[in-house]
Amino acid sequence: MLKQAIDKSEFIKIKALLAKNGLTMEPNLTETLYIEENDEVIATISREQNILKCLAVDERYQNENYASRLVTEMINSLANQHIYNYRVFTPTKNIRLFESMNFRLLASTANVAILEGGHPSIEDEIEKMKVQIKYKLGIANPKNYNIGCMVVNCNPITLGHLQLIESSAKKHHYFIVFVVEEDYSLFSFPERFSMVFLAVAHLGNVIVLPSSKYMVSALTFPTYFLKTKEERNREYTLLDALLFKNYFMKELNISHRYLGTETDPVMVEYNNALKEVLQDQVTISPRFEKNGKPISATTVRKLILENKIEEALELVPRSIASILKPLARQKYEINQ
């Protein structure tokens, strides 16, 4: 019998099945389904938003088509909520299984693959970007121009971000700033996007675009089949770089991506993996400094949460000060 997991006793049984398959239960799951026989969980699947995760079938029942049944039921559940695009991160050995269920392979490493099904597809999202580029920059065909880019969180945008955008944009006909859409930051995506848009408004060859959900977030990348944090970070970064290179750089004619230097070990590894995949198509630039200290969004957020808002404003573009000041006050009050 196929059921939706609700209570603790159900999740205990599901975790036991995952453990038998060398998997773990992830946090922040939106929905979990399972098939039960004789009071025993023999198959399960979960999702976080539109990302399918934690698919497992007891080895005794792996010829019973339960995996397909669970995936179909989860897709139907998504459709009932008007969600028609879905993705799965899975061990590479499962690529054929998901392709047999009409999933399309987007990218894969030796260990992990990302596939998607439904619509809109990654190609549809890129076409929407082309339309925005055409009307905002007057470019009918990106293939005719030298285009550079940055992918930024800008939580919030700082003078360091702006200086890197300005110096990098000078090297290209046009320049795209992709703002990461995932809302796991102190400032929401609409707030971050608006501040970046205002900060670069004086740059005639620069366009600001939402990143789309295909610029993979480390925060939603599944860990249930990867054993260590290091392995997780490595695989996430490689998939992110492959997706960006094979789709966005190719279709939008992006010749170069720019990064700032990092001090956090995870972000250093991220930059190194991007360098490995993009090779001479990526440049890692030193952070810009003020008064001998690197300018970082981390410092700005720290000052805001310490109620040193005037000090924080000294590290951001003047053009965003009028909207950042009340936002910063709000963030400080919320986090007290």
- Continuous helix count: 11
The CATH homology group name of the largest domain: HUPs
- Could you give a short account of the major beta sheet? 7 strands, mixed
**Total strand count, please?**
14
Overall form: globular
* Class per helix and strand makeup: alpha/beta
Descriptive overview:
This protein has a 7-stranded mixed beta sheet with strand order 1-2-3-4-5-7-6. Strands 10-9-8-11-12 form a 5-stranded parallel beta sheet, with helices on both faces. The N and C termini lie far apart (48 Å). β9, α6 and β10 form a beta-alpha-beta unit. The chain folds into 2 domains: 118 residues, Aminopeptidase, CATH 3.40.630; 213 residues, HUPs (Rossmann fold), CATH 3.40.50.620. The chain is an alpha/beta fold. It contains 11 helices and 14 strands.
Which features does this protein show?
Aminopeptidase, 336 residues, 23% strand, 11 helices, Rossmann fold, globular, 7-stranded mixed β-sheet, alpha/beta, 2 domains, 5-stranded parallel β-sheet, single chain
